[in-house]
From TrEMBL:
PANTHER family, per the entry: ABC TRANSPORTER ATP-BINDING PROTEIN (PTHR42711), ABC-TYPE MULTIDRUG TRANSPORT SYSTEM, ATPASE COMPONENT (PTHR42711:SF15)
Transmembrane segments: none
Keywords from the UniProt entry: ATP-binding, Nucleotide-binding, Transport
Residues annotated as signal peptide: none
Organism annotation: Natronincola peptidivorans
Record-given protein name: ABC-2 type transport system ATP-binding protein
Annotated InterPro entries: AAA+_ATPase, ABC_transporter-like_ATP-bd, ABC_transporter-like_CS, ABC_transporter_ATP-binding, P-loop_NTPase
Length: 301
């Protein structure tokens, strides 16, 4: 559906290499998170796909069409929700969406526009002017705008930045529905939890380079061998008593609690070692890694 091959971008005046030999192949219907720190290159990549920034090198193919040679076709296939909120403030929401439909030669799509506004909880703002919308409403409005032509691929650049929790959940529901209906979705976000909840595949970009690209479940599984455990005893613990576990970095967490960092395959062995020392424990808590922990490990490598 989307093929990015050896893509590079250098902002000449700033002498900044924002993307370095990026290769990404996205299949139809995938829901992918594109993660990276501020300045990693996410928006540059999205702006290239949107045709707003010219690539320095490489090829981009969208739905089988070359991005530069078949600009019109590629624009029909993708819908982009930009990070920056700027659009016509002197038009109503309905007018903005009709105008956008017009760019694609679409007429008489009132019903679809209503459906979009309904799903995005914007129905009562249909007649409101752009300037009258709150930040969160503007973001949802931009999502509706990106979708009026029913694109096969939806790319969202931090759509939930500054959006309150309740609305974020409305958006999650909406994106899930869209994904189920077969739309290919690429989401950039700084809320890693959001990516963990919604996406099937995770791509991490760091200083313009792709440093991870894997199914989310595989990433979580590969990184989940190392776990942190907390063990509660019925006596006040002294760290010296745990010298026999020193390779697992024992730490006293509370009067009666210690924590260890272990490979999950060693769990039984460690519990046996503790039991053999006649150290009675009363509770055990296992903490698995979240996508956020894995992400931080990846970008710190
Ligand atoms: N128009 C431009 N001219 C010069 N340098 C730019 C331009 N746009 C972006 N850059 C630089 O390119 C790098 C990548 O920026 P980009 O906006 O793509 O990052 P990002 O991953 O989207 O960051 P954020 O999460 O903050 O939105 C940064 O170092 C940035 O300063």
């Amino acid at each position: 559906m989307l093929k990015i091959n050896n893509l590079s971008k250098t902002y000449i005046k700033a002498n900044k290499e924002a993307l370095k030999d990026v290769n990404i192949h996205i299949n139809k219907g995938e829901f992918t998170a594109l993660l990276g720190q501020n300045g990693a290159g996410k928006t540059t990549l999205i702006n290239i796909l949107a045709g707003n920034v010219k690539k320095t090198q490489g090829e981009v193919e969208i739905g089988g069409y070359d991005l530069e040679r078949n600009e019109l076709e590629t624009k029909k296939i993708i819908g982009i929700v930009p990070q920056e909120i700027s659009y016509e403030t002197a038009f109503t929401v309905e007018e903005i969406l009709k105008k956008q439909s017009g760019y694609f030669g679409i007429k008489n799509n009132k019903e679809y526009i209503d459906e979009l506004l309904e799903s995005l909880a914007l129905q009562d703002k249909k007649k409101a002017y752009g300037r009258e919308l709150s930040g969160g409403m503007k973001r949802r409005m931009l999502i509706a705008k990106a979708l009026v032509h029913k694109p096969q691929i939806l790319i969202l650049d931090e759509p939930t930045a500054g959006v309150d929790i309740e609305l974020r959940h409305t958006l999650y529901q909406f994106l899930r529905k869209l994904h189920k209906s077969g739309t290919t979705i690429i989401l950039t976000t700084h809320y890693i939890e959001e990516a963990e909840k919604l996406c099937e595949r995770v791509i991490v970009i760091n200083h313009g380079e792709i440093i991870a690209d894997q199914p989310k479940d595989k990433l979580l599984k590969d990184f989940s061998r190392e776990i942190r455990i907390e063990i509660d005893f019925d006596w006040e613990v002294n760290i010296d008593a745990f010298d026999f576990l020193k390779e697992y970095h024992p730490k006293v967490e509370d009067k009666k609690r210690i924590s260890l960092k272990i490979d999950k395959n060693d769990l039984t062995k460690i519990l046996d070692m503790i039991t053999q020392k006649n150290m009675k424990f009363v509770d055990l808590n296992i903490e698995r890694q979240k996508l956020e922990d894995i992400y931080l490990q990846l970008i710190r490598r």
